[in-house]
Design goal:
CATH topology: Rossmann fold
CATH superfamily: Flavodoxin domain
Number of strands: 7
Shape: globular
Strand order of the largest sheet: 2-1-3-6-7
Strand content: 5-15%
CATH class: Alpha Beta
Largest sheet: 5 strands, parallel
CATH architecture: 3-Layer(aba) Sandwich
Number of domains: 1
Length: about 300
């Protein structure tokens, strides 16, 4: 019997669909036992968010400040054969509940010397969040052996509008009769997710994850666009600066920092609207001007090494 623990946090349930679609064949295998642990904050994060609640979560998320969590039901000393961490990026970082779990004493016991696979379901930018995940896992002594990403494949500016409609209004279906349904498409999950699960199952039973990520990549488990990679690179520099600027004025939800939060809520969408077309043009030229560098970066982010 192979024992798997799935650690996850979700607000809308979109991540659950990705988990279920990926693990369906493992779930039905008589030789595999899967335990699920949903991370639960002591003070729940709202869904849908209000405008201010959404942007007020930015500083603590980017700076990696943990929130209080409810007690876990899993036994950190249990002999799990594989740990799966499923999460969503928030503001180019790990969502607060999963980040808080990674900083817990239980995570230190649970993840040491364990093989870990990450599953992400998100709008489209996940590279920086996964870099932070790699760093956490390295510090915890875990072995990252696989990464699977499910993304909204709409154009960046289109998904920017639909993600705000979803996060702030709970509207996931077609928005205003013009914009497409937000999120990872059901077709993507039906066509691809089970393949990733079968790859995991094969290596789980073999007890050897060598080469697993290469097989996952070959089957489409990683989605990287050069324009989004470049845009995320700019945000990675800017976000910590503004997170510190807000947090210096007060703690989460405090009235003292609300003006700065409100300003950021205007600056971020505006910056994306302005920079996206520029970055798109640059990204079309970059592979022509610097083909080796672009290929090298995409190859790095597709794999599980940490530079």
């Amino acid at each position: 019997m192979k024992n798997i623990l799935v650690i996850y946090f979700t607000q809308s349930g979109q991540l659950n669909k990705a988990i279920e679609a990926t693990l369906q064949n493992l779930q039905n295998d008589a030789d595999v036992n899967i335990q699920y642990e949903q991370i639960q904050p002591q003070i729940p994060f709202p869904f849908p968010w209000t405008y201010m609640q959404f942007f007020d979560a930015f500083p603590e998320t980017v700076l990696g400040i943990p929130c209080s969590l409810k007690p876990f039901s899993f036994n950190p000393d249990a002999p799990y054969d594989l740990i799966i961490i499923a999460y969503q990026p928030w503001f180019l970082s790990i969502s607060q509940p999963i980040n808080s779990f990674l900083q817990s004493t239980e995570a230190k016991k649970l993840l040491r010397n364990k093989p870990v696979i990450t599953i992400l379901a998100c709008r489209n930018m996940w590279l920086n969040a996964q870099e932070k995940m790699k760093m956490h896992l390295k510090m915890l002594g875990a072995n990252l052996v696989g990464n699977i990403t499910f993304v909204d494949k709409s154009a960046n500016l289109v998904s920017l509008i639909t993600v705000f409609a979803f996060a702030l209004g709970g509207v996931q279906d077609k928005f205003l009769g013009v914009f497409p349904k937000y999120g990872v498409s059901d077709d993507d999950l039906k066509v691809n997710a089970w393949k990733f699960g079968d790859i995991i199952l094969y290596h789980l039973k073999k007890g050897d994850y060598t080469g697993q990520q290469e097989v996952l990549i070959a089957n489409g488990a990683i989605n990287i666009k050069s324009n989004l990679m470049l845009l995320e690179g700019r945000g990675k520099v800017f976000f910590p600066l503004y997170a510190n600027y807000i947090s210096k004025k007060g703690t989460a939800i405090s009235q003292e920092r609300q003006t700065r939060v409100r300003i950021f809520g205007i600056v971020l969408p505006t910056a994306i609207l302005i920079l996206s077309p520029i970055i798109t043009v640059i990204s079309r030229l970059a592979p022509l001007l610097f083909p080796k560098k672009i290929r090298k970066e995409i190859n790095y982010f597709s794999n599980n090494t940490l530079r």
